[in-house]
């Protein structure tokens, strides 16, 4: 089915008539079938266009077109849909803008892996043909993602869908690059960067994941160049390194200038092992005298700290590796070897030449590429950078003003500030083919650099930079580039920017959220969003993060197939508090389905008992029964609670309030109380109850709709209603006239009474429906009035044969008792059980306890047992004896009391 055409074919139109023909069991597949397309056909997800309404906008965090969506995406988008659906129902002019991210390195890595399976590399295809392959991949997975969005029921405005490499966003990216360049905030330079040798591209610091790897400290002799020179009786110094494969790039050995041990060595020269090249011993504050020997080798082209030392001492930079981490010509005889093969070969040669002192195995933290998982190299490279300090300072200053971003939970603001305060310049060039090409050209003759939105007018004399921009560079512009910027007169930009709320995972706070904030402030002068709601990660039921490698991932589409989208959405919205991780479990999914089934059956009962009603209309307040007053007061409290907690993005608390009201108040009590009226002979009372039932159900469905849109829509259209869809129906509001503390107190007392009677019956194993004498002793005048006025409810739920209420009620000698607030409840035991049967049962119990007491007494009277058995065994027997003696005494007393009554 085409979920995204302007008009679908052969799909149900939203003109369903109210019906009582509802199946007895909730079937999510039947409920959800065709519903999404119907919503799209009616254009219900587009902004209202009402200029008097307040705008409310959300941009979707664009999923990468690398594959199918996972449960984390389902959680993220569910929360956004809940927010936008509620705001739409509250009358806001809402826009939820969809789109996807080209995800440069991630998508290119996927396509290259696919090609490798066919024995092809991107270089075999060439840039143009390879890019065509990636676009084909993008189209395939974008289609899959949109089908998943449809299954989730996301109320997105597809007419505004964007892609991070569409024409409009490309224009925005070029303008931002050129403007930052012209301001001196983008520069090109040779620096040590993180390098992914598989993807053959630069990485930013936050694209590097550190893992513990097995390694070693290799202690190597560096002989003095002056063969007559010795230090501490040796003609060499000892240098420890974890990376002997970079030794061919060494240009110095350094010691700390304050280290008295090595002062005389500064200025001496040593021979670089395996290279037979002289390098100097220098002094630099970088060296930690307390670490190892206090002497370190300096390799400016292969270590970021060494790079800085090299700059201070004007050392040569010798890059010994190619971009695939194989050794180059500077590595001498090791040229062409993989870096790890070269390490083994160098270690063997050092051992053979007597230059290896010792090898100490270690486990150390090593950087790996987030996308390809290969070990990252620190590599000297010419790259483009963003100068971050002024942009970060602007973002930090903005947090002190009225346009500050509101972080939810608040603690993440500290993480944001810490990131901004300790930020490094951002390497934005990537040696990839998939992405936004850097708008820089180099003159083929003069080497001059030209940066501009448009290509040079004489392109034959220029060569464009082959690199592309970091994915995050374009996605950092997402909240405003998707609205039509850089055209600041674009209708959507003027109407819906800044956006209201961003919902995303806390794990991309530095990657994306921070960058959107400083780019938005720089280019629009405004924060990109008012609120940023940061949620946690989805974990399995054991608390382990879901991952493909562990095989514990869950496909949300599989969950929907079994339980329905509404059940998954209910679980995800109620999973945890903001900022916390959530554990997925099928037990919780079962509970979610059961809750919806409860709603389904309660709704079915209500709808079947509404007669020929066309629209719910509350009766005059003077005609409300206690139950009516109570349920409407509880409804109003729930409306206020849900609205308040939604505004705080505390969906878990909102869910708890809804669950308690629907399951306990409405289903377990009000519906049950309504049955007495609906089956009675008073037609007017019946009509009133029908209207209250229908009104409360209508309000429940509206409250639930943002969370579980499919089933609420189906039920709402099956009952008397006005309007074409809950999607655009009015959200419940506070009705102060419904608040009735007195009715809530009175009903709470009735419920407590009925619950206590049920508890007595359960304790006595007596049937709930059997008639019993019920005595209620209370001197509380309010309680006496409540119980006497509402005797019909007590009759229905407590089934009293006789009912006595008052302060002078005398408790029967042998009765079951429960104490409730300001009252005591008595039911004669003879009313609950057959006394002769009870006597027989108690006599059997008495015999059993007597036998146990006799056995334990004999055992403890055996001196050999007491003397030889372990102390804990003896003590255990003593405890059993005491327990059975107490039970025997209680049984005898109860038996005597019953025999006296029988």
TrEMBL record:
Residues 35-585 form the Aminoacyl-tRNA synthetase class Ia domain. InterPro entries: aa-tRNA-synth_I_CS, aa-tRNA-synth_Ia, Anticodon_Ia_Val, M/V/L/I-tRNA-synth_anticd-bd, Rossmann-like_a/b/a_fold, tRNA-bd_arm, tRNAsynth_Ia_anticodon-bd, Val-tRNA_synth_C_sf. Gene3D superfamilies: HUPs, Isoleucyl-tRNA Synthetase, Domain 1, Valyl-tRNA synthetase, C-terminal domain. A motif ('KMSKS' region) lies at residues 545-549. Its EC number is 6.1.1.9. Residues 1-28 are annotated as: Disordered. It comes from the Bacteria. Belongs to the class-I aminoacyl-tRNA synthetase family. ValS type 1 subfamily. This is Valine--tRNA ligase.
